[in-house]
Design the sequence.
């Protein structure tokens, strides 16, 4: 099996799998258990100075099931850590002595230049390997500034020039050449524009993506939000498998434009997910929501599966593998508009449920037909190869060729 060592921003990781800034990295006990299981790095839950320590409205986390499956998505109205920078500082010092081969990343948030300087100084004094700056969090925009509307208009993630200036201020306060990662939100019109602002400001890497702004939904029996505090709730952040395509879209766009490294996060649950992110340009893989379902021990399967894949595909390293699929992603105008494919049904696996026929007639072009109890039949003169039939097949019996 290939080893998974990877260099990210000049820092060596024993493997690319990193616990993202989250409740899973918000106590010394949890971080120690994660490191014992084999995680390559830890991003401590985002923190700030004591005067900005938030109070959390509980409950603040819930899963969104779909078709009987738990956590198809995950929703939270959590804020930054209730633990201050000084507690994180002590933890980093402790873990640097106990786990010298692991990467410890401090995540910080502030609204004033002098606060960023203090936070950076604390992390560097503790020996942090890297610093991640949380420039936005959809449910916590007000947790630092106090005015959510004002914060939404002024957070660096919403403005390229402000992102550049804020990043530069933070970068200029770094004394020990500690690599600076800027975490990006998808809740903007053009994430490339914001990523360029971070790069122009001196960021050594970007991390994409933060949670997607959303709302959990309403309990139809009561009329209350499904996640509520005495009947009331607020807008929050969506994570988990449902946001993986959004994350991959953002990462692939960023990796095609930026020359600095990208850390990928958003919906990663399996080694296959991680491999996709790497092929799209991510050299560091952060995991958040999946840990709440599978536990810290999931890193063993992640490492085993990814190592086997790298060996099977004959990649010498993660660095070589990173971005290999970007060349296959083009603007729509560059695609072959004359390409012709047809729906082909494998009768050995087809269960004759009729889902493809219904989809074809009600959302496609009416090219499929089916007599009761028989296999669907295709009218090749009508079928344009749109793919809607394949999207609903429960047995993966349909190919387009």
Sequence:
């Amino acid at each position: 099996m290939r080893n998974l060592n990877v260099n990210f921003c000049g820092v060596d990781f024993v493997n690319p799998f990193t616990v993202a800034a989250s409740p899973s990295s918000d106590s010394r006990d949890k971080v120690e258990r994660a490191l014992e299981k084999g995680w390559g790095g830890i991003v401590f839950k985002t923190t700030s100075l004591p005067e900005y320590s938030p109070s959390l409205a509980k409950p603040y986390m819930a899963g969104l099931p779909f078709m009987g499956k738990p956590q198809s998505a995950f929703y939270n109205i959590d804020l930054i850590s209730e633990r201050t920078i000084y507690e994180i500082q002590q933890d980093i010092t402790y873990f640097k002595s106990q786990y010298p081969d692991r990467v410890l990343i401090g995540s910080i948030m502030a609204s004033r230049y002098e606060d960023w300087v203090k936070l950076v100084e604390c992390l560097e004094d503790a020996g942090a390997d890297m610093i991640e700056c949380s420039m936005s969090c959809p449910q916590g925009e007000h947790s630092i500034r106090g005015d959510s509307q004002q914060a939404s208009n002024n957070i660096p993630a919403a403005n390229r020039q402000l992102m550049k200036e804020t990043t530069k201020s933070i970068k200029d306060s770094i004394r020990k050449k500690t690599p600076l990662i800027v975490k990006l939100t998808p809740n903007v019109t053009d994430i490339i524009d914001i990523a360029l602002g971070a790069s122009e400001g001196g960021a050594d890497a970007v991390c994409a993506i933060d949670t997607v702004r959303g709302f959990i939904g309403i309990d139809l029996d009561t009329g209350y939000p499904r996640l509520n505090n005495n009947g009331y709730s607020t807008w929050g952040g969506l994570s988990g498998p449902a946001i993986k395509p959004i994350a991959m879209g953002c990462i692939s766009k960023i990796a095609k434009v930026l020359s600095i490294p990208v850390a990928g996060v958003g919906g990663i649950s399996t080694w296959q997910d991680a491999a996709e992110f790497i092929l799209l340009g991510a050299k560091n893989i952060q995991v958040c929501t999946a840990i709440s379902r599978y536990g810290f021990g999931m890193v063993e399967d992640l490492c085993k599966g990814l190592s086997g894949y790298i060996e099977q595909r004959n990649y010498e390293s993660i660095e070589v593998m990173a971005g290999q699929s970007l060349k296959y992603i083009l603007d729509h105008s560059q695609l072959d508009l004359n390409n012709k494919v047809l729906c082909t049904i494998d009768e050995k696996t087809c269960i004759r449920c009729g889902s493809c026929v219904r989809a074809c007639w009600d959302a496609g072009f009416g090219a499929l037909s089916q007599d009761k109890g028989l296999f669907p039949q295709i009218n090749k003169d009508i079928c344009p190869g749109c793919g809607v039939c394949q999207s609903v097949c429960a047995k993966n019996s349909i190919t387009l060729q």
Remarks:
- The first strand starts at residue 6 and ends at 8.
- Residues 298-312 form the longest helix (15 residues).
